[in-house]
Records
---
Amino acid sequence: MWSRPYSSDNGDLVNVVVPFMGESITDGTLAKFLKKLGDHVNIDEPIAHIETNKVTIDVASPEAGIIQKFLAKEGYTVEPRTKVAVISKSAEGVTHVAPSEKTPSKAAFELAPSEKEVDKQIPKAETLLNEILKEKPKVPMTRLRKHVATCLKDSQNTFAMLTTFNEVNMTNFMKLRSDYTDAFIEKHGMTLGLMSGFVKATVSGLQNQPIINAVIDRDDIIYRDYIDISIAVGTPKNEPIVMFVI
């Protein structure tokens, strides 16, 4: 029987807990709260993001109400069913202050500075570049980025790496792209790139030469009956992920 993952101390207060994250995922990092203390949330509305080594998971509110308090902080390592917030269904005891209308300050009515004054205020490009170069990055890597970096480095350390260059006649493939580009964009919302052709060619090569897809296990050569190609791609969050094509 499916049920929303929460527990309640009484009829009004409801605990928001971390949901099941998937097979082989035991914990994650509380990356960000999407709501603030005193905000109203609807049932099943996400209030936080949990980052794991594989995916980013939403923590949804089990009931509609007001966020009374947070039980964890951003950056904490949490496990499934860890309590992260408390929702008040009746909103009693929660002070939710509406934004006040402040009187415009005197600065709001000041005239804009002249062009000469603006030129003095704008730093030179050389000075700005030097400041940027001196500043050290302060943003830590996410769990997903760390995991991908570890896997890529382990692959480099444990597998035979080979780089080769060969010239291939791409006339037929380029014509296929030209013929189906418009239909592909209409269906998928993106252009038909070259990667799909490279993957198809790689799969055909591995099927024609099974020894290339084989592995050595002690004294034996194991011929795989499947093909697993991993491709590092970029996401809208600018975090690399690995897409498995089998």
---
Amino acid sequence: MLLPFLLRGCTAKHYVQQALSSTRLCVNYCNIRGLATSSGQLFLRRTPQRFLNQSRGAKTHKRKHQNQEDDWKKRNKTVLTYIAAAGVGMIGLSYAAVPLYRLYCQASGLGGTAVAGHNTDQVETMKPIRDRIIKVTFNADTHASMQWNFRPQQSEIYLVPGETALAFYKARNPTDKPVIGISTYNVVPFEAGQYFNKIQCFCFEEQRLNPHEEVDMPVFFYIDPEFDDDPRMARVDTITLSYTFFEAKEGQRLPVPGYS
């Protein structure tokens, strides 16, 4: 009786142990599967978000790059506009430079240009500097294309600052056709130009001479008394007034006075 009871107890214990082992295997399997499932879900949950963030970042970078390109294009257009405006302005100034510079030279005596115009009151009231005698010499030239005969009627004149003087040039047209001429002038030394004032002159005015016609052209001028007060003029005792005649043609420009 005892032996069968012991056998039954051992058999029950064996089944219990097998059941516990199966239970442990099942639990372990479930844990592993659950871990895998959690990892998969975590991977599936995070992976799309990361790719989405990367896609958003790429779009943002592309938009920023496009905005920079648009900004650069806008700046380039602005710079090109300024450059074009400056170019047009420089072209306009180049056309106006010669007459404007000539007017400035006539007003200031720069470049050996005699000062245009005069102050009537100054001419009437200025006092000659008798102890400062100056020799004024005269020169005449013609451009290569100019067919006139042009010369001064006197080679030199002596005067003092504050004293008026009158000189003459003679022009003759030896051709068989009318010729229109126009003249420019300068004074040497250049620094003396600001003190050389013309009251009457034939410069920068068109002069028409018929075939074989000859005319006298007067130059009425004076030297400003301030000439004697300028230290730069201390050793200047000779001044040369020079005229050059050009044939007046359409589109032709005269050289700047003092640099002919």
---
Amino acid sequence: MALFFIYDEFTDKVDGDGARVYAEMVMDAIENPYKGRPQGEPKLGEIARQFWLRAIKVSSPAAQRRFIKTFAEYVYAVIDEASDQAGLDIPDEVMAHHGMASLCALAAESLVLTNDMYSYNIEQASGHGGHNIVTVVMNEKGVNLDSALKWLGDYHEEVLARFQAQHRMLPSWGPAVDRDVEIFVERLGYWIRGIDSWSLETERYFGTKGLEIQKHRVVTLLQKVKKPNVTPMMAQPSAQVH
């Protein structure tokens, strides 16, 4: 997460070409951690190299291969993101407007809620569900799993309704800025919808059954592993979730 945060900070300030330079720099540092970084290179390369030197001491060869593959997919995807960002020219005072800040916060809240609801099954099975919002709601409100998911679903609908209402209430900053703002807000919407599609269309949370689950909306809970790595405080789940 620390490396992700730093990488995000660097790439937020560049266009697609700059993001490509950073992507190649970071991947070279990870794939060649015992090679010194070039003189005058941005500190990101050395940060990535030192991160990986520590990571390989506590991860298996298989885990290392998986990380390199998925992290490479991420850093090269950021190139497209940076290229898209370069097409928008929204002034700082517009982004600082309370309406824009609210839209960003609501989009992030939607992402967290959606991700936790979709990831709950594998997290509870592996014993890692203690920090999942589903478990938090079950314990905070004293309800079972079905009721917690119903509460979260209703609350998520409220978040989306507030997002749409806030969008309609944005003021005008002139034709040129309004155009860029509209594109920005539209992409926030893509982000909200995208995590929903990604969670069901990939095998990350539901294996090969994601599209089937999308149709009938029923998930069979996985059995808990016998020896989880951690033992969080967890409410007792029901056998099936609708």
